[in-house]
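User: Hello! My lab partner asked me to get a predicted holo structure for this protein. The small molecule is magnesium ion, SMILES included with the sequence. Please write out the structure tokens.
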Amino acid sequence: MSEFSWIETYFRPLAQAHPESLQLQDDAALLECPANTQLVITTDMLHEGVHFLAGTTPHLIAQKALRCNLSDLAAMGAVAFGYTLALGLPRHTDAAWLADFTAGLAADQQTFGCGLLGGDTTATLGPLSIAITAYGHIPHGKAHRRTGAQIGDDIYVSGPIGDAYIGLRMAKGELPADNAMIARYELPMPRLELGVRLQGLATACLDISDGLLQDMEHICTASSCAAALDASHIPLSPTAHQLMGAGHIHLPELLAGGDDYELLFTASPMSRLALDKIPGLTRIGTIRQGSGLTLYDAHGDILPINSKGYQHFK
Ligand SMILES: [Mg+2]
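Assistant: Hello! Below are the structure tokens for the protein in complex with magnesium ion.
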């Protein structure tokens, strides 16, 4: 099948409901933004063997690629409306693979209310690579930056930490498998609705992709401040507690593990009343003067931090 008939069969249906795509008939998309909004743009690239394991279904690969991008929009507080897709496909890729891949995208377009705006497909001699650029909009001046944390702010996370790390270890056969945990790694949930609700409340925000500790440091560096985290307040799933109790995993691994895609944000203590009404949030620490990150146990003693998270260039 030619590139053009692949576009016709598999990609055009993903663009149909979204007029900005011009039905993929022109050389580029034409975007309209509602009045008084800013365009929010993010790109994430995924490679087989680095971001997903060989053998993962095309359906899941497509969803993870799109969701990583949507999670970045969520961190900024944006409403998602579309994405472009650049695919480097190994030469043995067939129509069945593409059908499953685009079915994954179609499902998530329904879930998250966004559509395909354009893209490119090429053959590659290397492993599969996927680059998605996602587009969202946000009322002018309302985007959450990493630079906004203030001394005295509370620090929050939107859900359990380390489940994706546990899911990855399970998918690799290193821990007894539990499908719900593997899904936390393979199929992250971008916190788009939460991101919008945090407009006007979060002073700084990001999505946790490199590990809680490393991502916390990103906020500290950008905002020129320090963070004090209470290890005993950091939310962990029942499975994480169980595996820790049995000695299979340890807290530092969970705090350094990536791919959770929960939101990590700071907010003024004056916002506590408003934030208490949002389900799923946990207050885990405080922003202080200085630099860097300190982790405290339940007795107020400092816990040593060794590896802070996933790094691509080691
Ligand atoms: Mg991010």
